[in-house]
């Protein structure tokens, strides 16, 4: 949310506080009651706008995180496949080492 909305909300709340103090000092003043009601409505409108902006921002951030999560999962699957291939190659090389070692020990090489 931009700073202008925050400042506006703060000013509305300050005005509302002043009007409420005046209402307490002069009960039944129709103009002060109307001013209070309008300021409260304005305050709710600004807060609602802030909430909508927050929801939009969080939705965008959440979507970005979800996409990143999917990319990481896909990358992990790719890495898992590579790790499996390396593991298989290592097993074949180890088997070849045993064969060569056995053959060399037997004097076949």
Structural notes for this entry:
The chain is mainly alpha-helical and 109 residues long. The protein has one domain (3-105). Helix content is 91%, strand content 0%. The chain has 2 helices and no strands. It has helices at residues 3-25, 30-105. Helix 1 (3-25) runs antiparallel to helix 2 (30-105). The longest helix is centred in the middle third of the chain and has 76 residues, at 30-105. The radius of gyration is 36 Å and the shape is rod-shaped. The termini are far apart. The model has no long low-confidence stretch (mean pLDDT 91).
Give keywords.
single chain, 109 residues, mainly alpha, 91% helix
Low-confidence stretches: none
Structural class: mainly alpha
Count every helix, treating DSSP H or I runs of 4 or more residues as helices: 2
Q: How much helical structure, as a percent, in the residues? A: over 70%
Anisotropy-based shape = rod-shaped
Strand content: under 5%
What is the H/E string?
HH
Number of domains: 1
Mean pLDDT: 91
Q: Give the termini distance in whole angstroms.
A: 78 Å
Number of strands: 0
Reported for the largest beta sheet, the result is: none
The whole-angstrom Rg is: 36 Å
């Amino acid at each position: 949310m931009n700073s202008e909305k925050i400042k506006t909300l703060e000013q509305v709340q300050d005005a509302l506080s002043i009007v409420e103090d005046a209402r307490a000092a002069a009960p039944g003043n129709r103009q002060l009651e109307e001013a209070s009601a309008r300021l409260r409505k304005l305050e709710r409108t600004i807060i609602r706008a802030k909430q909508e902006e927050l929801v939009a921002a969080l939705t965008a951030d959440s979507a970005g995180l979800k996409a990143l999560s999917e990319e990481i999962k896909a990358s992990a699957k790719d890495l898992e496949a590579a790790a499996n291939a390396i593991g298989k190659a290592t097993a074949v090389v180890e088997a070849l080492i045993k064969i060569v070692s056995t053959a060399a020990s037997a004097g076949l090489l």
